[in-house]
Write a structure and sequence with these properties.
It contains 38 helices and 39 strands. With 1237 residues, it is an alpha/beta fold. The strands form ten sheets. An eight-stranded mixed sheet has the order 7-6-25-24-23-8-9-22. The chain has a six-stranded mixed β-barrel with strand order 34-38-35-37-36-39. The chain has a five-stranded parallel sheet with strand order 12-11-10-20-21. The relative contact order is 0.14.
Length: 1237
Amino acid sequence: MTDTQPRTRQAALDGPLEDALVGVRRFFTKAEVSADKRSMYAQGGRSDWFYRDRWAYDKVVRSTHGVNCTGSCSWKVYVKDGIITWEAQQTDYPSPGPDRPDYEPRGCPRGAAFSWYTYSPTRVRYPYIRGVLLEMYRQAKAEHGDPVLAWASIVQDADKAKRYKAARGKGGLVRATWDEAVEMVAAAHTYIIKRWGPDRIAGFSPIPAMSMVSHASGARYTTLIGGCMLSFYDWYADLPVASPQVFGDQTDVPESGDWWDAGYLIMWGSNIPLTRTPDAHWMTEARYRGQKVVAMSPDYAENVKFADEWLPVAPGTDAALGMAMGHVVLKEFFVDRTVDYFDDYCKRFTDLPFLVTLDAQADGTYKPGKFLVAGDFDNDQRTSENAMFKPALWDARTGGPAIPNGTLGHRFGESGAGKWNLLLGDLEPRLSLAGEGSDAVSLTLPAFDTPDGHATPVTRGVPTRQVDGRLVTTVFDLMLAQYGVGRPGLPGDWPADYDDAEGLYTPAWQETVTGVPAATVARIAREFAQNAEDTQGRSMIVMGAGTNHWYHSDLIYRTMLMLTTITGCQGRNGGGWAHYVGQEKARPITGWAQMAFALDWSRPPRQMIQTGYWYINTDQWRYDTFGADEVAAGDVGNGAFAGKTMPDLFAQSARSGWMPSYPTFDRNPLTLADDAKASGAEVGPYVAQSLKDGSLKFAVEDPDAEENWPRALTLWRANLIGNSAKGDEYFLKHLLGTDSSVTASEAPPELRPTDINWRPVAPEGKLDLLLTLDFRMTSSTLMSDVILPAATWYEKHDINTTDMHPFIHPFTPAINPPWEAKTDWDIFQRLADKLSEFAATHLGTRTDVVAVPLLHDTPDAMATPHGAVRDWKTGEVEPIPGVTLPKLVAVERDYTLIGQKYGAVGPLMEKLGTTTKGVTVDVTSAIEYLKGKNGVHPGAGVNAGRPKLGNGINVAETIMALAGTTNGHLATQGFKTLEKRTGTQLHDLAAEHEGKIITFAEIVGQPTPVITSPEWSGSETGGRRYSPFTINVERSKPWHTLTGRQHFYLDHDWMMALGECLPTYRGPLNMHQLFGEAPIGQTGELGVSVRYLTPHFKWAIHSQYQDNWFMQNLSRGGQQIWMSVQDAEKVGVADNDWVELVNRNGVVNARAIVSHRMPEGTVFMYHSQDRLIDVPLTDTNGRRGGIHNSMTRILVKPAHIIGGYAQLSFAFNYLGPTGNNRDEVTMVRKRTTPVRY
């Protein structure tokens, strides 16, 4: 390290005072203390004295680990002489009952090693600032006096800015005081707000469930100042886009205790013993009661050892396997015979009986079109409220179309009250239109089984009927056609039988794609469905990152969800999908959201899709060397993407209000509000007119203009750089302005976007300030400008929940934060107070124009009838805020009061209540409770008389008081509110706990189960195990979709363009075709080309633990890749050799683990092995080797940025483009030069 001040003593972690305090120990022991105070030597006593002393302790506290592992395990933390000595698993979980195993013991070797971090060499003990920046700042402050002006003088000087940005990642961090570090950050934020706008400031912290108070701290600060919070679920590629597409819900899954209830369990892309270690016992124990376990995995993974059968599916081809299984189930359980349970379930709870119009083509065939809705034909609801969002089904009783209850059109508006339910009344839905009175026509459907993945047409027939001159068929008939299940009398190309390898989606066909034997696939499909029939829906698929991190993961998932849905397994204990990729379920989600997004003080917040944010702001869009039509269906679809690029589509999504886009405009939103006021117009009309006449533009239309750059980024509880940064080297180059290893070519002129301005030279170093709060050094802290020392999980008060069990766990401090560490809540309070101080001079009270996307679970979902895309920019429609534009809301911000507001519960709670999933609840009683529980602020400030948020316990109590899952009164009230819309009884689900509020003291005493609440779709009433959608199935509550049912068919224009209206197979992207990478298996000067995957590491949870001394010993230490024996032989690599991986995105050095468990053509580099340990200089460029994401980059899929239409509408971490990275390929070769560091 370098220092800007002369040293007056020898380098040490602490000063003379600290050394003296440590030395005092010698006065309280008879043992001899060594001169360096590191050893003690004792004589005499019992022979086991040392052992007994080693395991003696003064106190034990309950805490847990805030890492994204889904474990949420309760731990006992032991303290001796004020030092944390070790941890052990708690064993006091409430029992799930005498008929099943207990939850405990929960834990894993990684968690048992956490206390090492408290005193580790990687611990961040003090505030640090990049030395060159600190020197500049001190000089500037001496010159200007005002810290804000001092910061401005640095970033406005191009040479100074370039110099400190180029130093990022190259050492030079120096110790600073808390006051100086906080002052610099607050000054930077104040300047950015004033000069560029608050939406140029972003915050990122993932997975609120793992420590809700800590997440809320930075999110609350960022939101109060008008900054944007970046999403995490889609960014991690953990968000399964198929979940909103099918369910209109996001990752509501069964707890692990419900695995016990399953009769048949498939592990598909989820390595349970490795990634769900504390829960794996449920899977292994359930086998003893007759459950069959099947593993689908490309490699011989840990979970394979516990399975009854292993299907070694080729990487990324899982959708082919899913389509073949669906082919078998549809044929044997729907066409060959009728299973009453499946038939009834599908008619009531899926879109299979709903009608789809068919569009005639020039060649005499048809293509599937739009859902037939009430507004399309003559019926008694044609002129009713929201008629364009009330789809029709075929009623067997009347022999014609009918509009059932429960559609999106019934969810909103006065006329739908009491009708948003799944009760059919006198209706008798038909799954198929086949039979007397129907006519058969030929459909043209897209197929993607060509070597390059392009769409080709396949012809299949369906039965049809006429409705007011429109030809219609059912979704069920379309599904049979899509899956290739023929019936007598239908035209088209149909497979002969299961052994027809040329017939799309047969078991034999899939064998040519996946390598799994056809007979095995047919048998597993048959067993899965037969078990579902026999057990009334107790077949389950556990799925995860192995299938979800691909570009076309939404299609993989739709083929799997098809299996669980048509067999009636969703909404049944022991059945359905079980998607586990992260600790996503923040059980008291409503309370957390109020605190995190400061909804108690102002609304709406800025919430951004992180994948899109970095796709644009790290300039990865400039490196897309293919058109959008390359990943679409071309003329087999609707041709909507012809001549467009992916950045064009992204810009269209932003300006249409489908997805959020921050920074939003090419003008400071504070200035924009001033301009609107000066014009005498309201904000909405003023902005719409300015966009129309071109005087105002979206920032995304010119992202490389300096006024549109992101300017500040705050990370806490996060390791963005390297760990989750897909395209890490692009971050280093364009965002941070430091050394990178990018060699990719930019798009040639003919493939550049037309809706985004292309500047000749891409900027480097857009970001002015990178602030990270952490308790350990990571790849992100090493790139940061300012690092603040945070408390660990054993040093603060917080709360933690998970998808895997129903309990709330506390964090409680075993010790106070050591050295100069502070809790996240305290750190952001300091920042808020300092910014408020600067605001008195520089900001005052300003109006901020906030652009808000069209939101899910609101009437915004009805902005796009029929999902028909109309673009105001091309003149097809007018720019209308909240319809064809984002909503535009003026928010008043008094920046001098940010500190006061941060530490108090605001008055909007009583005024507006809380809203989750469209259900608004009056929380006045909860606020009165909190006034007594937390106390209130005295004085005459804006916080006077408001409940305090002075510490972690206050915030935890507030989160739990404001959520139905932890406040039974609010849960009961929420259900009663929902009953007015559904017309069915629901409130009894929470009535048993109506008077209960879970408190922090209660969860410290014992893990406490949550309360059934409308915030989630499953019921835990009476102590049952949680499974999603049980309320939908058992209480006839609709799903949040267009039809109100689970969806197989998606009729948005862009889904048609992609050829993905129905489940289908699309393999991994062809990186040779798109980017010129070598085809897999090809060898050359740079080695052998292989598929590059980054799964979860056995000795880490993401980047946590991998640097831990214990885990380094259990693994080989340092960066490593796993490769097959065959690939190793091709390039002369032996086990433990150093290898180098090179592609257009970057360079990685690692040691090879050569193993027979790996399939040929694929390598694993487990994420995330930080660039901190044993990373040598590369042969390629002589710079330090990269991290696993040095080989990856962002690839946006158009299906993920659709919005404003039914379930395809934005909500934070509900829908958005994923940071997928598993389609990537790289060259691997043996390193030939000496290893140098």
